[in-house]
Amino acid sequence: MLNPLPEKDIGESEFHFDRGEQEIVEHVKRDLGQIEEDKIDIDSDSNSNSNSDSEDEEALRVGNDIKMCCVMEHACLKYAQLDSSLELMQQLHIFHSHLRATAMQTVKQTMLDHFVSRAGHA
User: Fold this and answer.
1) pLDDT digits (tens, 9 = 90+) for 62-109
2) Within a domain: residue 29?
3) Phi then psi dihedrals of residue 88, to 5 deg
4) Residue 122 near residue 27 (C-beta atoms within 8 A)
5) Contact by Cβ (8 Å): 53, 69
6) Which end of the chain is more exposed for a tag (fewer CB within 10 A), N or C?
7) Region Disordered: which residues (predicted)?
8) Is residue 81 part of a domain?
C-alpha cells in the first residue's frame, strides 16, 4: 500500500474525454440517439398494426397512473393528517398494486440477443 504499482496504460478508450463535460454530454446524446434509432428500426421491421399501438398507449397510460399513485401516496404522508389520510393511503396502495398487475399483463418480452448487444455498447 505504501508503494503502489504504477497504472498500466491500456490504450485508447472510448470513454476518455479531453474536452470535459461538453464532450461527455455529446457522447451521451449520441448514444441516446442510437437507442432511439434502434427502437424505430424494431418498430418498422415488425408488422405493427393499430392493436399494437393501442397496447403501447395503454402501457404508457398505466405507467403514468402508477407514477401518479406514488406522488399521491407521498403527498398523503407529507401533508395530510394521520387520521384523515390513512384510509386514502390504503386505497391508493390497493389501486397501485392493481395498476402494477395490469402493467405486468401488457409487458412485452425483449429478445436476449438485443439486450446483450446493447450491453456490449455501454
Assistant:
1) 888 888 888 888 887 787 776 677 788 888 888 888 888 888 887 777
2) no
3) -60, -40
4) no
5) no
6) N
7) 35-59
8) yes
Number of domains in the chain: 1
pLDDT(122) > 60: no
- The residue with cell 451521451 is 28
The 3-state secondary structure of the chain reads: CCCCCCCCCCCCCCCCCCCCHHHHHHHHHHHHHHHHHHHHHHHHHCCCCHHHHHHHHHHHHHHHHHHHHHHHHHHHHHHCCHHHHHHHHHHHHHHHHHHHHHHHHCCCCCCHHHHHHHHHHC
- For the stretch 2-28, pLDDT in tens is 777 777 666 666 666 677 777 777 777
Cell numbers placing 39: 427502437
